[in-house]
UniProtKB/TrEMBL annotation, chains A, B, C, D:
Upper taxonomic lineage: Bacteria, Pseudomonadati, Pseudomonadota, Alphaproteobacteria, Sphingomonadales
Coiled coil: none
Domain Acyl-CoA dehydrogenase/oxidase N-terminal: 63-145
Cofactor(s) annotated in UniProt: FAD
Family matches, as SUPFAM superfamilies: Acyl-CoA dehydrogenase C-terminal domain-like, Acyl-CoA dehydrogenase NM domain-like
Record-linked Gene3D superfamilies: Acyl-CoA dehydrogenase/oxidase, N-terminal domain, Butyryl-CoA Dehydrogenase, subunit A, domain 2, Butyryl-CoA Dehydrogenase, subunit A, domain 3
Protein's name according to its UniProt entry: Acyl-CoA dehydrogenase
GO molecular function: acyl-CoA dehydrogenase activity; flavin adenine dinucleotide binding
Gene Ontology CC terms, in alphabetical order: cytoplasm
Highest taxon, organism lineage: Bacteria
Keywords: FAD, Flavoprotein, Oxidoreductase
Organism: Sphingopyxis witflariensis
Acyl-CoA oxidase/dehydrogenase middle domain sequence ranges: 149-245
Recorded family membership: Belongs to the acyl-CoA dehydrogenase family.
Subunit structure: Homodimer.
Length: 416, 416, 416, 416
């Protein structure tokens, strides 16, 4: 017997991790502590100061593969897939708890084959891929053998309105011919990146929601050009990068179309719900890191005869950070629960609430942590500047704040 | 077998109303709709423009008693008492859901014998009162026959630091002799107010936490003087008022001491946890009223050719209000759940989080609702100005924001 | 030789009071200290607790007339009139300095015949009044014998868009017949209020900017009904009030039209520039009062062993208030100077900058002063709650914040 | 005859550029437009992608020297020096106007020999240098032949409290022996940097304000080690850099001491007033760049059928930016004027007001410009990310915000 509306609403407030997920959650934390934290510093040190910035340094991938193999051996692999017969099926709610842990360190997600944008790409392939597409791309992705990128944003239009996307795909015989310019293609610099899922306009004459499609483009297709990295606050994030790309008469087989021509927005809806929640929950983890650093610095440095934490507004800043982290955590958990109970479509207002609230406020928390560190806070001696750049970036990615406020505002206006 | 710490933490996120409370919740909503809403406008109209402002107008109490009797008949009575053998025992979590409904209209709480400060006073009497004290004061309070006041704040010291309280009680023979000045004694103007619970300093030489006591003072004791009402933004709230009082050699029997000399702070701790959560949850209800009015006005008024809701930042203001209301609701529910699971003492940081977060942000939401109404918003044509004054007041009552930030901040600093 | 554009822009930054105005400025300060401050408390005490709230108490007007007569005798009279042959002509810049002093106490403005809305009404009459209109209404206003009101805002439309105004005036023979409803008519409750300047719609078919007119309506005209006071945060401001009025077939002679039919907006432009600056500069004075009280309280009250001013964020709150007061002062002075040098029309963006910036920020400063006072801050024991209500009201009056941001924003967009 | 206090206060509001400075101001703008803007893009392009990051690329310095020579030839050289017989003496007020122009592009300051930290270092040398010191270091600095750095901040203490500085200088015979660690030494990576002014602790036993000294250290002294660059949001700012340095038994002649042992804070006071104002005024220029970009992007990009500038809160964001830029400009001008009229010491509260207000608010304006650009805003395709990093850095440099609020707050508390 299905739940009544009242029962559903009540159930939405059960934000507990399931008992079944607890062992996995514990195992993930243990894995991070035992297999990831110990290699993180060395991994990044190996990559520093290289002439050939767009490859991995000798030893880097070996370290990472070591952690991946341990995760695979422990069964901590691909569990992000909510419907997966290929992974451990987890509810969005349970995954949200885990994602908060993953957000605390930069290598954790990949060590578990759970890093963006591969997770979203794998989800899409699993849901809408043909057997051939799954065999060729999903399988090596699930094995962690290759990586992928999601090719959406364009430099020449306001991509916040996805209807503006103008990279074109035109059918010529048995091939789609793709032309256009994209940027901020995260991960496309990685030598391991072999496949792109690309949003293209297939029919400018169609109804607004049916003009666009998503299509698979192997990285090595002629005409796929990586023009260079986009720097984010001066950092090129080599060798993975957020790449600027051009597609110049790129030809792919007709069968590379996902789900069907004109169904690009439909696929976007599929991927965005969970993806946004994963992002937001990882961001809660980042906020925890920032608050932890803020407190430690506040307790350990002294000025004018007192620990910084006792000076001026600092204690209130710390308290507000804690309060808002807890509030954001609950909102993200509720959005995850809403996806589990109501489906992505019905949950979309909850998802937009989380996406609008979290990155903006966490940017502030990181910024306050920076301030209490003095100039050290913007340097490479703490992870704060990187965290800031990441989370600042998130205020555009998957829809800018403004679009999510619009979703929530329209729903509110409509309910009265 | 008691829960492990991990199980406890997990359980704290089960924020569902209990299935047992749902019928009560429904009955309360029905009672408000059927018995309270229909009399509210008349109740206040009767009270307007009176020469004798400090009495109830003919007919007012009759209306209210009618609603109270219906509630009593329906068993909707005294359910706030968490440990009560005299009422329906409700968890703090369940009560929080109900309180959000009570906050939406000014007479609901009293119609169910659930209004401040009587609820807190009844709780204290039930927990620490002697059989005589219970017979004489708790019984008529539980019956809704009399009302009470809580006498804490003093005009001459910063009462945010309760250790500053200087109204004195000195034992002379079998009597305590009380001298001092208090203000903002809510409800002490009501002719039905018969008993005061008063915070006094009994021993300035004792350890800091043992200097104060709480004592029962019947309203008609010689020397109890009501000097006049404190106006709040110009409104004297007659006939209940927030009164300015003097205690001039007020003598009460030794037995009027509650719990024991020097145990005043202990009693404060008892009353404050639930009281703060009730306040906060009622405040969520007030925020809902404000948002509802904001949306209705935004949709119905037109300027420059568009509904106000479509102009400038208004839709974002509305969206942010919705997001923050949901975030605050979850934080308050979590604080209530923490009291249920951990006890008031362990839950105190959660309670301070809610108390610091909610009144400040709800003031802003009400203020934004005011702005969208134009001058009507600050007038008596909407409830917004009253709501604002109420919630603004709450930023001092039960500890000012600053004290709650201190509680949260110290806890955070201590955990690292 | 007129200044070049560059010279003009340079000159706009000479924000000094003129040497000629300094003696007047000093005399005004002396007058307030000697003649107004000493009577203020008694004036308001006489008005308290009256049964007949809508008249002046015996003795009140005598006190005020005493101060007025002293001002008149000292030549401190009507100096607000910028073009006046009837007063001391002052630049807007010089007047702005004086207005900041007037804002610090509630009776100062009227004691010098410089209170709103009479100042604006007198300006309009002087600029556009016929000799008859001047004789009948301007003369007694300039003498301080009668008072006036400005009748603009309507309850049934969003008056922020003045084009919405729908109170109608229709010509029947030699008379205008006026019908409609207005509210927040400040001062219309005062028994001395004898004349209204009323914004009416005279031709709904005309071009948008030519549909409205301003017309003189003597208070005692049949059909002029005062329905009652609008309360502001619960306070009715008797006996002056912000009145709710109805005009029911009110007939006035054709000659009562100001300037000409359809020229209502033109008159609005005349009055609003200076009026807004006067308001803003008085508001700076109010912010000074609030900051002064905040500092005094912060220095004199102690909690947790320290003066409040040394606790938490309080010193930063105080510093930010000082910084923002100085910034606002300079912006207001610059807007006044722009009116002097460029004329009201060219200066309108500067005026909107001041009007958008000042009331919102000063509300916050007053609110912070309230917070440091605890509950005393919202009571009648300090002027803070009244100041807050006043300045909050100003965020709608003379155009809500939103309209002024629109003016500034459009100008900025247009300049690129 | 000196001005009276009242005349002084009045005079402080004359914020006009002097007539004498206008031609210089015009010449500087012309120089930037004709000699600097045309070389800027090429200058930075030459520096990109170099293996040897810590040298200038062939051609870079030639471009810059070309612009410098043109400036020198036009007499636009060293005019920052307020007391200079070596330059064009300018008031702080006049210089503030020019600095706002310099802030708009990254090469302007150096092209005029007016870039930090050389300006401060030259000022100090001119004021307190011995003839020998001037000959050896000031002369080539004034000629633009060498560059210099200011060595203050330390990684191991909270340098916001300058009393914490612990790099030591101990006298051994005729030499000072210096040991310690410093970081964020701006410009010390530049091959042209030849001289350091270094804050050292010379006597930990002295009175708190007499423990520190400032001393000249030639860059090529044995023991001066550049450990590497501090990255700012990931950018190392090669080849100038913000360097991490160690001083390991660095020996300099006794005569290298500036002004005298124990007078380090005295020198700090000299340099900080003007330096802070120059920084703040350049920051106003940066805010203008950001607002300009925000408006252009808002007008040129379209989403949901409208230019971005017409969507949601964007127009209000733009209006608030304009208002606050004008307010900040006036505050900075007033602080500069206060230094001119009252001297650096008396003006210090005004300087702290500007320093506390400007960088924080300009960071927000740049951030809002970033948001309206989408991901382009954080990339290297606009100057916004660099501007943000620069201005964010400024919230620590020359005293963090918190210290300046303390200066203003204490002054305010002291005046009551």
């Amino acid at each position: 017997m299905p739940m009544t509306e009242i029962e559903l609403q009540a159930e939405l407030n059960d934000l507990r991790m399931s008992k079944e997920a607890q062992p996995l959650f514990d195992a993930v934390k243990r894995h991070i502590a035992e297999n990831v934290d110990p290699i993180t510093e060395e991994f990044f040190r190996l990559g520093e100061g290289r002439a050939d910035r767009w490859s991995w340094a000798p030893g880097q991938l070996e370290l990472l593969e070591g952690a991946k193999n341990k995760a695979k051996a422990a069964g901590l692999w691909n569990f992000f897939l909510p419907h997966g017969d290929t992974g451990t099926p987890l509810s969005n709610l349970d995954y949200a708890y885990i994602a908060a842990e993953l957000g605390k360190s930069p290598l954790s997600s990949e060590s578990l084959n759970c890093s963006a944008p591969d997770t979203g790409n794998m989800e899409v392939l699993e849901m809408v891929g043909t057997p051939d597409q799954k065999e060729r791309w999903l399988k090596p992705l699930l094995n962690g053998e290759i990586r992928s990128a999601y090719v959406m944003t364009e430099p020449n239009v306001a991509s916040s309105d996805a209807g503006n996307i103008e990279t074109s795909a035109r059918l010529e015989g048995d091939e789609w011919v793709i032309n256009g310019e994209k940027y901020f293609i995260s991960g496309a610099g990685d030598p391991r990146c072999k496949i792109l899922i690309c949003m293209v306009q297939t029919n400018p004459e169609a109804a607004r929601k049916a003009q666009h499609s998503q299509i698979l483009i192997p990285m090595d297709t002629p005409g796929v050009q990586v023009l260079g990295p986009m720097r984010v606050f001066g950092d090129d994030h080599a060798p993975q990068g957020h790449m600027h790309m051009r597609f110049d008469n790129v030809r792919v087989p007709k069968d590379n179309m996902l789900l069907g021509e004109g169904r690009g927005f439909e696929i976007s809806q599929m991927r965005l719900g969970p993806g946004r929640i994963h992002h937001c929950m990882r961001t809660i983890g980042k906020a925890e890191v920032a608050l932890d650093l803020m407190v430690k610095r506040g307790n350990s440095r002294t000025a004018f005869g007192k620990p910084l934490s006792q000076l001026g507004k600092n204690m209130e800043v710390i308290a507000r950070a804690r309060i808002d982290i807890e509030a954001m955590r609950l909102i993200v958990l509720k959005a995850a629960k809403a996806m589990d109970l109501l489906g992505n479509r019905e949950a979309r207002v909850w998802v937009s609430m989380a996406k609008a609230m979290v990155p903006e406020r966490v940017c502030q928390i990181i910024d306050q942590a920076i301030q209490i560190h003095g100039a050290t806070g913007i340097s490479h001696w703490t992870p704060l500047a990187d965290l800031y750049a990441d989370v600042r970036h998130l205020r555009f990615a998957d829809g800018p704040d403004e679009v999510h406020y619009m979703v929530v505002g329209r729903d509110e206006l409509g309910r009265h």
